[in-house]
Design brief:
heterodimer, A: Aldehyde Dehydrogenase, Chain A, domain 1, 41% helix, B: Aldehyde Dehydrogenase, Chain A, domain 1, Aldehyde Dehydrogenase, Chain A, domain 2, seven-stranded mixed sheet, six-stranded mixed sheet
C-alpha cells in the first residue's frame, strides 16, 4: 500500500476439518489468482483422504449438533452472523479479489450473506412447525409427523457466488441439525476460508461444518460413495457428466441427492425447499385409550 | 384346550377372471406384444390366467397415451373435477370391494381377512383422501402455484398389490399427473380389475395406463425418455439400480425399499398386548411387509417370559386356505420367495441361532412357510441383517435403552420401528432416537392415507400419504 512500507504478514490458506485448520494431508496446493490473473494465494488442495477425515468429523459433529435444541441451533447460527459482521471488510476484499466485482457489489453480497444466516437462524425453531403436522387417522391413535435431520451432507458450493452462494447452501443444511462437508468454489475459495475462521470463533460444534478446497471432480466421488454420508447437495457441480457419475455413486447407499439448480438467483428470498431436501419425515403412532 | 373350526371359505363366484388378459392403454384393453406369462394361485399352484407381457412397443404406446392425456386433458382440468374422478374411483372400489378382496387373495395368497379388512378398504380410503387434495394443492406448503410433473412411471410389488397401486396412483392423479403403472409379475389381477374401475369411472383415456410384465418391462419404463417421474416400491437392490439408471436425467424419483425393523419391548410393557403387536408385526401378510417388525428386541428381564407367551400365541395361529375366513397365515406369494425364505432360515441354523415353529399342517399344494421364531440371534447373523420378507422373527435382547437404540439403529435400513413400554417419557425418547420413518409405539403395522409412510437411509426416500406425500408429485418451489 502506498505510504506504508511495512511488509504485510500473509496467511497460509488451509482446510477446515473437525474445528481445526489442517493442510491437505497430501501436501498439495493449487494457485488461485484474481480476475486480472494476479497471484492471490496457494490454496490447500484437498485429497480423498482429507474428505474421508472430514466425514469422520462430520459424523461426530452430527451426533451432538442434531441433539441440540432448536432454540440453541438458532442461537449458534445467529452467532455466526454476529462474527461475520465483524469481518465485513475482509469479506468485501476477498469477494472483490475473487469475483472481480466492484466494492459496492461485494459489500452488497456480504450484507446479503450475513442476512441470509440470520434468516435461517430464525427458521431453526419454526421449520418443523411448517413441515410437520398431526395427522387425522381413521382410528383411536395420536399420529404426528416431524422433520428430522438426514445426517451427514456433502455439498459443492456454487462456483460463481463465493460467499452468498456458499452460505445459501450450508445454512439450510445446518439449521435442521445436519452436519456438512462443503467444497468451496474452486477458483474463488478465499471467502470460504475467511468464513471458516468465523466459524472457528463462533459456537459451531467442532466437525459440524467442514470446508474443503480443491477440485470437486477429485473429492466428490469418494464422498458420493462413502457409506457414512447420507445426502449430496450438487449445487455447485457444473459438469453434467460429473453430476451423473456422482448420482450413480450415490445410489450405492441410496443417498438423497439435490441436483444443481438451473440459473439460481441467490439474491431472492429462499423457499423452504433446501431445508426440506435434507430432512426426513418421521411419523409416530400411539393408541389413544384409557 | 383347542378349538375346532369348521371350514369357512369365501366364495370365489364373485370374481370373473378372464383366461387371457391384455394391457390397459389409452382407456382400452389391448393385446401385448411380448410373450404372455401365467399368474397362479400360490395356495393351489393353479393357473388363474394368462397375462400380457408388455414389450418396448407397448411401453412406448402407454407413455404416449399418458403424455397425450396429460397435455390434452388432465393437466388442463380443474382440480375440482380431477378430484371428482378420484372420489368416483374410491366409491367404485368400495362398491366392488368383495370382488377385489377375493381376487387379491387368489392371486397373492394373503388371508381373505386381511385383503377384506386392510388392503381393499385402505385402498379406497387413499383415493378418497387424495380426491379432496386435488383442488387444494396451494394450501399444501409447496408454494402458491404447485405444478404437476407430467407422466409418472410407477412400479409396485406383490405384497399389497391393490393397496400399493392406490398409494401410487391416488397422489399422482390428485396432483395432476398421468400414470403408467406396472404391477408385479406374480400379482397383476387386481390392477387389471382396477383398469375396469377406471372405465366405469369414465376416467379420460390415457390418464391411467396399466402395463403387465416382468422386470424388463419395468426397466423400459424407467428408461423411457418421456417419463418425468419414477415411483418405485420394492427391493433395495432394484431401487439402487433405478437410481443409477436415471442418473444425469431430470427424472424425479421416490423409492420405498426394504426394511429390517426393530420391535423393542421394555420390561414395563403390557406383555399380552406386546405379544399381539409382535405377532401382527411379523406374521401379518406372511411377513411380506417391508416395514415388518422382523427383529424383536426384548429387555433381558422379560425375554424368557415373552418368548413363552409368544410361542403359546403362535400355537393358535391357523395356517391354510387363504380364502378361509378363519385363516391367519396364508400362502407365500411365489416359489421364488419361498426359496429365499428357506435359504435365509437355513443360514440362521448354520450360524447357530435356535429355530422354533408351532406344529401346523402344511398343505400339500402351494407355497407355505410355518411362522418361525429364531432365538440366540446375534447382530452378525444374516437373519438379523437381511430382509427375509417372510414369517420369520429374529429375537435379540438388550439391557438398557441405549443398548436397544444402538441395536435398533445397527442396520442400513430405516423404515419402521416398534416401541413397547408404559412409560410415556421413554416412548418419546426412543421415538426420537430411532432412525426410522415410521415409529409405532404400543401398536404396530398401522396404515392410513393421512399418515406419511417412507424410510430413512437405505429404506429409500420420499413419503407416500399425508401432506408430505404430495411433494413427490409436485414441482419444488425453489428459486435457487
Amino acid at each position: 500500500m502506498i505510504g506504508n512500507d511495512r511488509v504485510e504478514v500473509r496467511k497460509t490458506h488451509k482446510l477446515f476439518i473437525g474445528g481445526a485448520f489442517p493442510r491437505s494431508e497430501s501436501g498439495r496446493t493449487y494457485e488461485v489468482v484474481n480476475t486480472r490473473g494476479e497471484f492471490l494465494a496457494n490454496i490447500a488442495k484437498a485429497s480423498k483422504k482429507d474428505a474421508r477425515d472430514a466425514v469422520i468429523s462430520a459424523r461426530t459433529g452430527f451426533n451432538s449438533w442434531s441433539k441440540a435444541t432448536a432454540y440453541n441451533r438458532g442461537q449458534v447460527l445467529y452467532r455466526i452472523a454476529e462474527v461475520m459482521e465483524g469481518r465485513k471488510d475482509q469479506f468485501i476484499n476477498d469477494i472483490q479479489d475473487a469475483e472481480g466485482i466492484s466494492n459496492k457489489k461485494a459489500a452488497a453480497q456480504t450484507d446479503q450473506a450475513i442476512d441470509r444466516v440470520v434468516w435461517y437462524a430464525g427458521w431453526a425453531d419454526k421449520y418443523s412447525q411448517v413441515l410437520g403436522n398431526t395427522n387425522p387417522v381413521a382410528g383411536p391413535f395420536v399420529n404426528f409427523s416431524i422433520p428430522e435431520p438426514t445426517g451427514v451432507v456433502a455439498a459443492v458450493a456454487p462456483q460463481d457466488s463465493s460467499l452468498l452462494g456458499l452460505i445459501s447452501v450450508i445454512a439450510p443444511i445446518l439449521v435442521s441439525g445436519n452436519s456438512v462437508i462443503v467444497i468451496a468454489s474452486t477458483n474463488s475459495p478465499i471467502p470460504a476460508i475467511t468464513l471458516s475462521e468465523c466459524l472457528a470463533t463462533s459456537d459451531v460444534v467442532a466437525g459440524n461444518i467442514n470446508i474443503l478446497t480443491g477440485d470437486p471432480a477429485e473429492i466428490m466421488p469418494s464422498l458420493a460413495s462413502h457409506l457414512d454420508v447420507n445426502a449430496l447437495d450438487l449445487t455447485g457441480v457444473t459438469d453434467p457428466e460429473l453430476q451423473a457419475s456422482l448420482e450413480v455413486e450415490a445410489a450405492g447407499s441410496v443417498k438423497r441427492v439435490r441436483k444443481a439448480p438451473i440459473n439460481p438467483n441467490w439474491q431472492a428470498t429462499p423457499s423452504l425447499s433446501r431445508i426440506r431436501a435434507f430432512t426426513e419425515i418421521k411419523t409416530v403412532w400411539h393408541p389413544v385409550g384409557v | 384346550m383347542s378349538f375346532e373350526y369348521a371350514p369357512a371359505p369365501e366364495s370365489t363366484a364373485i370374481v370373473n377372471i378372464k383366461s387371457s388378459n391384455g394391457l390397459f392403454i389409452n382407456g382400452e384393453f389391448t393385446a401385448g406384444h411380448g410373450t404372455p406369462f401365467k399368474t397362479i394361485n400360490p395356495a393351489t399352484e393353479e393357473v388363474l390366467a394368462e397375462i400380457a407381457q408388455a414389450n418396448q412397443e407397448d411401453v412406448d404406446a402407454a407413455v404416449r397415451a399418458a403424455r397425450r392425456a396429460y397435455d390434452k386433458t388432465w393437466s388442463k382440468m380443474s382440480g375440482r373435477d380431477r378430484g371428482k374422478y378420484l372420489f368416483r374411483i374410491s366409491r367404485l372400489i368400495q362398491e366392488r370391494s368383495r370382488e377385489f378382496a377375493v381376487l387379491e387373495t387368489m392371486d397373492n395368497g394373503k388371508p381373505i381377512r386381511e385383503s377384506r379388512d386392510v388392503d381393499v378398504p385402505i385402498a379406497a380410503a387413499h383415493f378418497f383422501y387424495h380426491a379432496g387434495w386435488a383442488d387444494k394443492l396451494e394450501f399444501a406448503g409447496f408454494g402458491n402455484n404447485p405444478k404437476s410433473l407430467g407422466v409418472a412411471a410407477q412400479i409396485i410389488p406383490w405384497n399389497f398389490p391393490l393397496l400399493m397401486l392406490a398409494w401410487k396412483i391416488a397422489p399422482a392423479l390428485a396432483t395432476g399427473n398421468t400414470v403408467v403403472l406396472k404391477p408385479a409379475e406374480t400379482t397383476p389381477l387386481t390392477a387389471l380389475l382396477f383398469a375396469e374401475i377406471c372405465q366405469q369411472a369414465d376416467l379420460p383415456p390415457g390418464v391411467v395406463n396399466i402395463l403387465t410384465g416382468d422386470g424388463d418391462t419395468g426397466r423400459m419404463l424407467v428408461e423411457h425418455p418421456d417419463v418425468n417421474k419414477i415411483a418405485f416400491t420394492g427391493s433395495t437392490a432394484v431401487g439402487q439400480a433405478i437410481q443409477r439408471q436415471i442418473a444425469g436425467s431430470n427424472k424425479r424419483l421416490t423409492l420405498e425399499l426394504g426394511g429390517k425393523a426393530a420391535n423393542i419391548v421394555f420390561e414395563d410393557a403390557p406383555i399380552d398386548q406386546a405379544v399381539e403387536g409382535i405377532v401382527n408385526g411379523i406374521y401379518f401378510n406372511q411377513g411380506h411387509v417391508c416395514c415388518a417388525g422382523s427383529r424383536l428386541l426384548l429387555q433381558e428381564s422379560i425375554a424368557e417370559q415373552t418368548i413363552e407367551s409368544l410361542k403359546r400365541r403362535l400355537q393358535t395361529l391357523r395356517l391354510g386356505d387363504p380364502l378361509d375366513k378363519n385363516t391367519d397365515i396364508g400362502a407365500i406369494n411365489s416359489r421364488e420367495q419361498l426359496n429365499r425364505i428357506i435359504d435365509l432360515t437355513k443360514s440362521g441354523d448354520e450360524e447357530g441361532a435356535q429355530r422354533w415353529s408351532p406344529d401346523c399342517v402344511i398343505p400339500e399344494k402351494g407355497f407355505w412357510f410355518a411362522p418361525t421364531v429364531f432365538t440366540n440371534v446375534t447382530q452378525a447373523h444374516r437373519i438379523a441383517r437381511e430382509e427375509i420378507f417372510g414369517p420369520v422373527l429374529s429375537v435379540l435382547t438388550f439391557r438398557t435403552p441405549d443398548e436397544a437404540i444402538e441395536k435398533a439403529n445397527n442396520t442400513p435400513y430405516g423404515l419402521s420401528a416398534g416401541i413397547w413400554t408404559e412409560k410415556g417419557s421413554r416412548i418419546l425418547s426412543m421415538a426420537n432416537k430411532v432412525r426410522a420413518g415410521v415409529v409405532w409405539a404400543n401398536t404396530f403395522n398401522r396404515f392410513d392415507p393421512a399418515s406419511p409412510f417412507g424410510g430413512y437411509k437405505e429404506s429409500g426416500f420420499g413419503r407416500e400419504g399425508g401432506i408430505q406425500g404430495l411433494g413427490a408429485y409436485l414441482t419444488s418451489e425453489e428459486s435457487s
